[in-house]
Amino acid sequence: MIINMENKIKHLEMMQGVINRMAGNSFLLKGWSVVLVSALFALSAKETNIFFIYLAFFPALSFWELDGYFLWQERLYRKLYDKVRKMNESEIDFSMDTSTVNKEVKPWMCVTFSKTLRIFHGTIVGAIIIVMLIKILQRG
Q1: DSSP for 105-121?
Q2: Which of 32, 37, 116, 130: CA 20 to 30 A from 48?
């Protein structure tokens, strides 16, 4: 007896594509965060202007928030993937609506301050604070 699972496989492939894009976006955000903050550090050193250090907070915090959003979305789609994986073939409707699993994933802000994001982005923010304090002490 051959069981036709073509719809389920296609639906799972669609969701896996979204999950992969979210993970890729998160990776790119981390890279851009490091590059922009480093560039602002370099400008601050070259121009001896502390304004560039203060400016570094904007991309660091913005990318942290966006990274949290992408991780939250990725977790929602992983839950939806798990739900679809357990469905019967006849129940497959190709829905990509994550609201059905929303309560099974921590809220966006909780995910934004998850351990892994706190360590990565917190280190960047911490570095900005240290460089800012060094600059302030050098001026004084």
Answers
A1: S--HHHHHTSHHHHHHH
A2: 32
Phi-psi bin for 88: left (phi > 0), alpha (psi -120 to 50), beta? Answer: beta
**CB 117 within 8 Å of CB 64:** yes
Closest to 81 (Cα-Cα) out of 25, 7, 8, 21: 8
Looking at the whole model, is its pTM more than 0.70? Answer: yes
Question: What per-residue confidence (pLDDT) applies to 1?
Answer: 45
Q: Tell me how far apart the alpha carbons of residues 83 and 128 are, in angstroms, rounded to a whole number.
A: 42
CA 132 to CA 139: how far, in whole Å? 11
* Phi/psi of residue 97, nearest 5 degrees: -75, 115
CA–CA separation, 37 vs 128, rounded Å? 8
Rounded Cα distance between 86 and 109, Å, is 29
| Contact (Cβ atoms closer than 8 angstroms) between residue 66 and residue 29 | yes
The pLDDT tens digits for 17-36 are 999 999 999 999 999 999 99
Q: Are 50 and 132 in contact (CB under 8 A)?
A: yes
